[in-house]
Design brief:
The chain is mainly alpha-helical and 351 residues long. The chain contains 16 helices and no strands. It has a single domain, classed as MetI-like fold (Orthogonal Bundle). Helix content is 64%, strand content 0%. The longest helix is centred in the middle third of the chain and has 37 residues. It starts with 19 loop residues before the first helix and ends in an 8-residue tail after the last helix.
Length: 351
């Protein structure tokens, strides 16, 4: 009689399958434990950035992101702008704050030319140089605020979502308290203080510096992240693989770090990306109102504020170029956030 091939089952050489010998030799209780362990490993390894047996989700995320043409083009634009800002001294040969000699002052109010692509300001400074250095400050503020607010928000949200009980109530009531504060009014009051302190206990940098601006904006920007992470973890902690990990004796810390947070990474990344654009826009608003980064340092906000009286005149280029760069950066950051949200959506079908 012909030998028919026997059906294949997960074997010892399969990276996540249940060993065949263990299944055959196990009794009912042990077999259930083995299956539960395999289910936990399979769920974790096939998360948003896993490389488990179910396809390659990490590469799928990248492929779906680059199919979002606006997001991909926006990412390229942001990389180019970031490179120009990082090497501003190489891209533009003019100093940021030149000595105001007679020759420099005589070169002021020049329309855009090949030697000065963005023109010169009222005191003769090259506008392209100022815009690039301002963009450098704005990107530092945006990335710093996004990083700091994400760390604080994820920590508080993870504690509230995993521990629950009185700690959850305490942290969320504190989050709600900070959330209802009028952010712009608080920012203006704190930023106007030349020597800010925390109730006299310790000092922190003023908002006229990049470090102080990052601390102030992050202190009032972590609350949405905390609420998002808490909501994600509250829904994930009831999943079967989490119950299996808890039944196998895993600690709450291990469950949070190994099973919960990796499966909430999509929402965290999207929020952090959008926080970059929001922080840049808020910093520009504060600087425009005179409560942010001050001269001789430059930011996109104070460049726009200095040129607000040039609208409709021959010097309107002084407000057009920094305004356009600010608009372009915030728009591109939001498009990248939209692309990441679509790419990390676990409900999208793989192709």
């Amino acid at each position: 009689m012909p030998n028919h091939p026997s059906p294949k089952y997960p074997s010892d050489d399969h990276p996540t399958g249940v060993p065949q010998a263990r299944v055959r030799e196990a009794g009912g209780g042990e077999m259930a434990a083995v299956a539960t362990s395999a289910l936990v490993d399979l769920t974790v390894e096939s998360g948003p950035f896993g490389t488990g047996p179910i396809g390659r989700p990490g590469s799928d995320v990248g492929r779906r992101f680059f199919r979002h043409r606006l997001a991909a083009a926006s990412l390229v634009i942001l990389i180019v702008l970031g490179g120009l800002a990082a090497f501003a001294g190489v891209v533009s040969p003019y100093p940021e704050n030149p000595t105001l000699t007679r020759a420099v002052l005589a070169g002021g109010r020049q329309q855009p030319t090949w030697s000065h692509p963005f023109g010169t300001d009222k005191t003769g400074r090259d506008q392209l140089t100022l815009v690039l250095h301002a963009l450098q400050k704005s990107l530092l503020v945006g990335l710093g605020v996004a990083l700091l607010s994400t760390v604080v928000g994820v920590t508080i949200g993870a504690l509230a979502g995993t521990r629950g009980g009185w700690l959850d109530s305490l942290l969320m009531r504190f989050t709600d308290l900070v959330l209802v504060l009028p952010a712009l009014a608080v920012l203006l009051i704190v930023a106007k203080n030349p020597e800010p302190t925390f109730f006299g206990l310790f000092e922190f940098p003023p908002a006229t510096e990049v470090g102080g601006m990052i601390l102030i904006l992050a202190a009032l920007g972590w609350m949405p992240m905390a609420r998002i992470v808490r909501g994600e973890l509250l829904s994930l902690r009831e999943r079967e693989y989490v119950e299996g990990a808890r039944a196998s004796g895993a600690s709450e810390l291990r469950i949070a770090l190994r099973h919960l947070l990796p499966n909430a990474i999509g929402a965290i990344i999207v929020f952090a990306t959008l926080e970059v654009g929001l922080a840049i826009l808020t910093e520009a608003t504060l600087s425009f109102l005179g409560a942010g980064i001050q001269p001789p340092d430059v930011s996109l906000g104070n460049l726009i504020a200095d040129a607000e009286d040039t609208v409709g005149t021959s010097l309107s280029y002084l407000i057009i170029f920094p305004g356009f760069v600010l608009f372009l950066v915030v728009l591109c950051v939001n498009f990248v956030g939209d692309g990441l949200r679509d790419a990390l959506d676990p409900h999208r079908s793989r192709s």
